[in-house]
Amino acid sequence: MANILFEVREGVGWVTLNRPERLNAISRTTIIDLQQILDQVDGRRDVRCLAFTGAGRAFSAGADVKEWYERSGEAEPGLGWVPLMHALILRLRRYRLPLVAAVNGVAVGGGCDLTLTCDVRIGSTHARFGEAYINVGTVPDAGGTYLLPRIIGHARAAEMILTGRIIDAEEAHRFGLLNRLVQPEALIEEAHAFARGLAEGPTVAIGLARKNLDRSWQLDLEAELAQEKAAGELCHVTYDSGEGLKAAYERRKPKFEGR
To answer: To the nearest 10°, the Cα dihedral for 216, 219, 223, 229?
Structure first.
């Protein structure tokens, strides 16, 4: 794939945006490549968590502005970037595996929104975040207005979105946008250790928990309890549920297999 590097280590599939000369700007090809990665992972039992990062000094500078500008006169601006990105964002939020973002540098616009699809964000002190769409006279178009307020609250999300202000890593950590803040040299090791812990967990249950967390924003308590009950019933017939119960009875650490 032209714009993505992919490797599997200890159950973690590492997805690296690989256009460092363009600050890993997200082109149409990048989105297609990411979808192909997800297609590949769907057929693999050895990948039980996905981790995303960027090559070079940026996570992602967002949509490829050069590509958008050069095709701006077409009936479908940006080569159909928005519908492609929407399909990717929806797929990631509904994905069966946990997602971790290792944010090594700037993550703005669509790059910021890509980190928001992940369950956990671990950032280096070089990380910066921004919903910078307003600075080019447009609005967030990759899920930012939905995901960001659910992570950091409405008021802080409104400030970021309405002003286009870029926040640094310390502020992102204080807001709750970053779960953990580490030194640049420790970022990949820290993110991998966290992702490996998820990969060693009961990933069927983790996937169902992800879905229930997302649905909880649209449901009342009674409906969410029903969702929890249904998810629990699915978990109870998995190998990992039986192994977890047996391990608790035997007072040992469970050995989950993700099935």
So the answer is: -20
Domain boundaries, the chain: 4-199, 203-250
Query: How many angstroms separate the CA atoms of 116 and 211, rounded?
Result: 15
Query: 254: how many CB neighbours lie within 10 A of its CB?
Result: 18
Radius of gyration of the chain (CA): 19
Give the confidence band of 51 by pLDDT, cuts at 50, 70, 90.
very high
Alpha carbon 246 to its chain's center: 33
Query: How far apart (Å, rounded) are the C-alpha atoms in residues 96 and 93?
Result: 9
pLDDT of residue 63: 87
203-250 CATH pick, 3.40.50, 3.30.420, 1.10.12, 2.60.40: 1.10.12
Select from 248, 245, 227 the least CA-distant residue to 236.
245
Fold that domain 4-199 belongs to in CATH: 2-enoyl-CoA Hydratase; Chain A, domain 1 (3.90.226)
Confidence label for 76 from pLDDT (cuts 50, 70 and 90): low
Digit-coded pLDDT (tens) for 152-169:
999 999 999 999 999 999
